[in-house]
Amino acid sequence: MNLTPNVPFPPTDREHGPRLQCGYGTDRGLRREANEDSFIAADPVFAVADGMGGHEAGEVASSICVRTLAELPQLKTGSRDASADILQEYLFKADADIREATGSRAGTTLSGVVVVEQLDVPYWLVLNIGDSRTYRYSGGQLAQLSVDHSEVQELFDAGQITEAEAAVYPRRHVVTRALGTGDDTEADYWLLPLEDGDRILVCSDGLNGELSDEQIAGILGAEADPQAAVDELIQAALRSGGRDNITAIVVDARTTPGAAAA
């Protein structure tokens, strides 16, 4: 279930606030029988949900999550006044609907950004539950904004394994928080200033599981067009093995008056 504009995402034309341009794409990968990823890319919401459960239950979970986010009033009004409290209400609803639809047999991650404005100052409201990821590429540097809810992340944070050990840890894909599982369904939120020239990448772990941060940064720096960047990221992940579903959204922001989103 993917919710996007009916036409290629144009730069947003607003009298005030940042102008955005977006690219997006998804691929089943080379080893999966179905694509259980879903995403939404519609100003001001850009998010990826990675379903888990098998037998198409994961696809149901991620689809419900994305459809629930699509009910946000900000998508209808075009306003940028969402908050963490508002988003969490919708995530609680998605969690309940997923459990009812799948009998608690499936779950989904969710990661992404919502563009918000406070006193006419723009921000990225980053949200995350699970191990899908949100990155910011700015000034030639790539930074992971979200923090994984995973067994391997907890071990790394506790100093029990090194970064090199984490990369090959056998249970590195086991998540500790998700929607629909009946466990902890509270997302983490960060409010970060939106700066001119920011490039946001939101992806499922089928992308970052195949590509290093250096590879991701290289592609984001080389491809000026956000759709071209998405296409190359997905192709690079497929060339690297494509062992999982792969989904990516790239959002470019411009705040300088008269500038177009790159």
From TrEMBL:
PROSITE patterns per record: PPM_2
SMART domains cross-referenced by the UniProt entry: PP2C_SIG, PP2Cc
Region Disordered: start-end pairs: 1-21
A single GO molecular function term of this UniProt record: protein serine/threonine phosphatase activity
Membrane-crossing segments per the record: none
CDD domains documented for this protein: PP2Cc
Organism superkingdom: Bacteria
Domain PPM-type phosphatase: residue ranges: 21-253
Pfam families in UniProt: PP2C_2
Gene3D superfamilies found in the cross-reference section: PPM-type phosphatase domain
Matching SUPFAM superfamilies: PP2C-like
Protein name, UniProt field: Protein phosphatase
Organism: Arthrobacter oryzae
